[in-house]
Amino acid sequence: MTSTIDRQQFPHGFTFGVATSSYQIEGATRLDGRGQSIWDTFCREPGRILDGSSGDVACDHYHRWETDLDLIRDLGVSAYRFSIAWPRVQPGGRGAANEKGLDFYDRLVDGMLARGLAPYATLYHWDLPQELQDEGGWASRDTAHRFAEYAAIVAGRLGDRVRSYATLNEPWCSSILSYQIGEHAPGLRDRRLALAAAHHLLLGHGLAVHAMRELVSADLGIVLNLNPAYPASDSPEDVLAARLSDGAFNRWFLDPVLRGEYPADMWEAYGADVPDVHEGDLAVTSGKIDFLGVNYYSRSVDSARGQVRPTESSYTQMGWEVYPQGLTDLLVRLENDYTLPPVFVTENGAAYPDELGADGVHDPERVRYFEGHLAAVAEAARQGVPVKGYFAWSLMDNFEWAHGYSKRFGLVYVDYGNQRRVLKDSALWYRALVTGTPTPVVVERAGD
Ligand code: IFM
User: Fold this and answer.
1) Number of structural domains the chain divides into
2) Averaged in consecutive runs of 10 residues, what is the pLDDT profile of the chain (448 residues)?
3) Domain region containing 230
4) Ligand 1: which of 83, 394, 396, 403 to mutate, most ligand atoms within 8 Å of CB?
5) Is residue 441 part of a domain?
6) Contact, 70 vs 423, CB < 8 A?
7) Looking at residue 157, which CATH number applies to its domain?
8) Which of 43, 237, 287, 438 is most buried by its number of CB atoms within 10 A?
């Protein structure tokens, strides 16, 4: 299999990176004064995590960060997207900073700079301090204010050594998936609380941007996971289903940030469950941002009878349809429907059942996935979307939330028994792409 995409197809100055998040890789959940997070609690609740695991050890990155940064540098990328664990910085989510926690990120950022990697930090990738959850978590308006204080502590310490600060990663997940669907911590099932949480997350984002503006001149923005919705047919019923799916997943988060309003059709559809929006909130949620991060994995195909799975498509181990065209469509649609700041694809990737063999890890499906989606990004740039960078999810296999360690998204295979890292074929392929060297011929899996 040879590659159809190369570096020349991306705009000048395009950033290639890799991404991770704190709870998924760090481990060391009780070290150096780190407080407990909602994920520590959730993992201890029977039945919540598929394999009964937790992030207690994960990739042991807290101890192996230097060699992990070497690995990233050796992939040839110029940027690393990582997240900061709020409970390391403020163990209970409020008050004085835990200096040892900040020291860790201080060293990590300096380590990136020493290796020529631009630090792209995310302040919240789901590890809320448990003490704040005990007071209602994101369903409580106060959490938005606590978040802005935490953001200011981090920006005050790391300053402009960090190239870009994203406030939130995927607020749909930390609200709807966590408070309504119950699959993520804190595991609740209440739409009213979920919509309150979504509003307070976006409010916290806006307050944090405002607080950080005073302290740094780094780029400030937010990362949304977006899932373009396609109607299963032209029937008005299916078109409406797709419109509502788009409203719930995408517009409910895009519009408050980029337009300063909630989408009217969804506001009506949610009835009495809509959040309590105070005067001035939407001016806060839509304050100026320097970039929009887009996480894209798949699309939905919606009908009046629910979601449809196209039979001709292939699917990842998560059961997500592989649909690269959706990424071009999404980026072009964003450019058409909103006044966009620069856009980064901050996550994109796929889980497949990798096996470590004597000659490495052959993951041709993942190579094909990356190839298709990178081509989709290049096409969106060609059509005029201001897309400035792409971060592969993920640097290495890690704790995949409710799926535990059963799903591997890494470019790098992690042998959890001994913490050995092994570059998969996809890592070799990505390295060749970003360094502009000929991409290696990818070995097909036996039986393919
Ligand atoms: O692993 C997650 C990540 O934490 C957030 N975005 C989706 C990824 C894959 O599920």
Assistant:
1) 1
2) 84 98 99 98 98 98 99 98 99 98 98 99 99 99 99 98 98 98 98 99 99 98 98 98 98 99 98 98 99 99 98 98 98 98 99 98 98 98 98 99 98 98 98 92 70
3) 7-435
4) 394
5) no
6) no
7) 3.20.20.80
8) 43
